[in-house]
Amino acid sequence: MSQVSMFSSGQEFANLLVSSDLLHDSWFTISDLRSHPYLNNPILFKVYPYHSNGAIVAFVSSPICNLQKEMVSSEELEGSQSPFEFISTKLNPHFSVNKAAITLFASLVNELSALKEKLGNASPLIITGVSLGGSVASLFTLWLLKDNNKRPTCITFGSPLLGDSGLQQAISERPSWNSCFLHVVSNQDPIPRSLVSPTNVFAGSIPQSCIYNPFGMFLLCSDSDCSCFEEPESVLDIMMEMNLNSQHQDNCFLPFNYEQVLERLKHKIIFKGASQLFHFSVDQLQAGIDLQLEAIGIGGQTSNINPLRTKVKKRVEESFAKKRSVIDPGKKLNKMKLAMAWLEWYMKVTLNEGGYVDSYKRSDFRSRDAVKSRQEIVKHQRVLNKYWKTKVAEVEEMPQSEKAAFRTRWLYAGTNYRRMVEPLDIAEYYMKSGNIDYVNLGRSEHYKKLEEWRKEDNPSGSGNDRRKPVCLTEDSCFWAYVEEAIINSERLREGTLEEKENAREYLVNFGEYVINMIRSYSVSSEIFHPHSSFMKWWKDYRQDILSCLSNLPLAFYMENGEYQSYA
Fold first, then answer.
1. CA-CA 20 to 30 A from 11: which of 29, 343, 527, 554?
2. Nearest to residue 60, comparing CAs of 347, 330, 273, 256?
3. What are the Fungal lipase-type domain coordinates in residue numbering (predicted)?
C-alpha cells in the first residue's frame, strides 16, 4: 500500500466504520447502561447479546468519577488485584497506566474474572465504554488478549489516554493486539485530550518517562467529517492541536453525546476533491494528510496548521521507512522453505558418500562441481541460521503466554531445521584445528532454546513405538559426540594417565548413549555407512574401544554385525 492510498484509506475506513452498525450498536449499549442508577457504584458494566452467538460488554463510569493524571507503574501493580504482569516483555519490561482507570478495574476484577469464563466462545465479542469506562474496557480487552483463543474488538468513545510509552510499545510489539482497539474521539469532547498538553508533560506531577501515549486506531471526528489515524506520534500531534483549538480548557467535563456525532456523519455524503485542498502546491502524500486533517476540523487558515502538516508528514514517512526495512513474513517463510529444500536435495545426493555431514566435511577433496554444490549449501545454511536466530530472539522477548502460541505454530519447523542444519555447524566447528567440546563451548544459544522448547513440548520423548529409523537423527548434537569420541579415543592411545581415565569414562558413556539411540531408532541409518565418521571411529579405534566397551551392549552390537540390518 502506498503512502497516498494509506491516507486516502484513512477516510475511507472511517466512512466504512461510521456507515456500519458496529459503532451505533456499541453506543446503544452505552446509552442504555447510562440510564441505570449508579447508586454507590463508580462504574457499571453489562453484557448485551449481539447477533446469534456474540456479545457486547459495555462499561460506563459515574459522572462523579474524577479523571486523575497520576499513573501507577507495573512494579506497583505486582501482587495487586490487577492481573497485567503479562503485558511486560524483555524489550519493554516496565509500563505505567492511569491510576483512576486501574482503580476502577480493580474494583471489578472478581466479577470480570467470572465474566471471562462465561463469555466462552462468544463471537463477535465487542468490548466498549465511554470516558473512564472506555479505559476500563481497554484494560479488560488486554486481559482477554492474554488468552490466545480470544480475539475481542474494543471500541471506546471519548476515552482518555491510558498509559505511557512502555504500555504503547508493549502493545505495538504484538500487531494482533494493537489492531483490536478503536478509539472514537470528537473534537468537541475534552476528555480524550485531557491527558495531553503541548508538551505532553504535566507540571511536576509526572516524570518525563511517564507521559501518556496512544495505541490502537483513532477515529477522529468533527461535526462534518471524520478520519482514521494509527501512527501514535501523529495522533498525539493532532490531539494537541485539537486542544489548542478547543474552547474547553478546564477540568469540568460533562458527558459527551456521541450519538449525535455518529448520526450526523452517517447521513452525510462525504466527498473530497482537489478544489477543497489548501491553495498552494502540495505533493500527493501531503494532499492525503491535508484531507484527513481538514476532515476533523483542523486546517484552512489555522495558524498552527503548517507545522502540524509537516510533523504528521514526517511521522508517516518515518513509519513507512521502518515498514519498508522489514521483509514481508510470507516472503521470508518462502525463502526458508527454499533453503530447506536445497539441504534435502543435498542429503539425497550424498547418501552414497557417507551422508551429507561427512560429505560436507570432505568437500576439499572432491570435484569442482561438488565444491560448488557445497558452497551453495553453505549459503543456504547461513540464511537459515540467520532467520532462526532472529526468530528465537523475537520469541524470547514475548511474554510466556505468547511463547506457547509460537511453539504450536513454529516448533515443528524449528525442530526440523535444528536437526538438519546443526550437524553442518558441528562439522564446520571441528574442521577448525584445535576446536573441542562443541556442546559446551561452540553451540549457539538459539539451538539450545529450540531444543529446550522441544523437550518442554514433549517431556516424555517420542518414538517409543517406532519400528524403523528416523530420516533425521533426533539429537542434533549426535555428530558432536562422535567427534568427541574420536578425540577421546586418540587420548586413550597416547594421552597422560589422567587423560586416559577421562577418555575411558567418556567412551563408556558414549557407548551407552549410542545403543539407546539405536534401540529407539532415533538415529538415521547413515551413521552405519562405511564412509561415515561413526564407522570410521569404530574401524580406526576398534581395539582401543573394545578395551573399555567389551562388556557393553554397543560392542556386542557392532562386533556381531547387527548394524548391517539397521534399516
1. 29
2. 256
3. 81-194
Q: What is the dihedral of CA 352, 356, 357, 363, to 10 degrees?
A: 80
Going by C-beta distance under 8 Å and a sequence separation of 6 or more, which residues neighbour residue 1? 9
298-328: per-residue pLDDT in tens?
655 444 556 665 666 566 555 545 544 444 5
Query: Could you tell me the CA-to-CA distances from 324 to 3, 173, 232, 318, 319 in Å, in that order?
Result: 12, 17, 18, 10, 9
Average of per-residue pLDDT across 188-211 = 62
CB atoms within 10 A of CB 476: 23
Both ends of the chain: CA-CA distance in Å?
Answer: 54
Q: Three cell numbers at 525?
A: 541409518
The helix-helix angle for 3-19 and 22-34 (nearest 10°) equals 50
Contact partners, residue 187, CB within 8 Å, separation at least 6? 220, 221, 222, 242, 245, 246, 296, 297, 298
* Burial environment of residue 278 by CB neighbours within 10 A (0 to 12, 13 to 18, 19 or more): middle
Amino acid (1-letter code) at residue 415: T
Please give the pLDDT value at position 98: 93
51: left (phi over 0), alpha (psi -120 to 50) or beta: left
| Alpha carbon distances (Å) from 350 to 176, 471, 528, 530 | 44, 14, 14, 13
Quick one: which H or E segment has residue 486? helix 478-494
Phi, psi for 228 (deg, rounded to 5) = -100, 140
Residues paired with 185 in a beta bridge: 220
Q: What is the DSSP letter of 42?
A: S
**Per-residue pLDDT at 7:** 39
CB 544 within 8 A of CB 489: yes
20-54 confidence digits (pLDDT tens): 788 999 999 999 999 988 778 899 999 999 988 89
Distance CA 408, CA 400 (A): 13
pLDDT digits (tens, 9 = 90+) for 120-138: 888 889 999 999 999 999 9
